Amino acid sequence: MEGLQRCFVLHARPYSETSLILDVFSEDSGRITLLSKGARRKRSNLKGALQPFTPLFMKWSGKGSMPVLTHAEPISIGLPMRSYILYSAMYVNELVARVLETNTPYPVLFLDYLNVLRELAQADNPEPALRRFELALLYHLGYGIDFLHCAGSGLPVDDTMTYNYREQRGFIASLTIGQLTFTGEQLKAIDARRFETPDQLRAAKRFTRMALKPYLGGKPLKSRELFIPRGRSTGK
């Protein structure tokens, strides 16, 4: 069918007695808000399809702030997000919904999003996949930073030296140790998206939280307030 786009539903909320408002991530159109009329009716063929983590073909009509969904069909079954992994997947959805501007195409980021869902569906530890997606998101937002060179001297970072992060400048060699400090080895791991040790994962998480904060503003992420089962980490 002409005009179909690959999409995922990020979030759905009730509208009137029978309809839904959908926050959708589309391969060609980016993040959009759609009205799905009648989707909540008992006999609606859309009722089971408009779920997060289910790849869909979707089509809509109309312009303005809320086009109307005219067609939706699953491409495949939903990606299974078991127990604690579900919280991490919900975090990814909320991050995309909060950070991306509407009606701005991000076709490569859409593939990164699809990949992180696939990784999460198969993961025991969600953190490496989440850190890679966060870094991809920052890159597509235009957040360019050099992890491999000292912003002060221009020299390549040294594994054993420490570097202090300065917003909009990069990493500068420093003898002080604090929340903004990273070793050269940690910076190289972040640049390579290589997270093989707990220390590398902690450093990457610390960096992405700092870097994403300006995009998220002061409003906390709801997915971080979810219950975390004992002994498990959602990776957020």
TrEMBL record:
GO biological process: DNA recombination; double-strand break repair
SUPFAM superfamilies: ArfGap/RecO-like zinc finger, Nucleic acid-binding proteins
Annotated DNA replication/recombination mediator RecO N-terminal domain residues: 5-76
Matching Pfam families: RecO_C, RecO_N
Keywords: DNA damage, DNA recombination, DNA repair
One GO cellular component term: bacterial nucleoid
Family recorded in the similarity comment: Belongs to the RecO family.
HAMAP family: RecO
Protein purpose: Involved in DNA repair and RecF pathway recombination.
Name under which the protein is recorded: DNA repair protein RecO
Source species of the chain: Photobacterium aphoticum
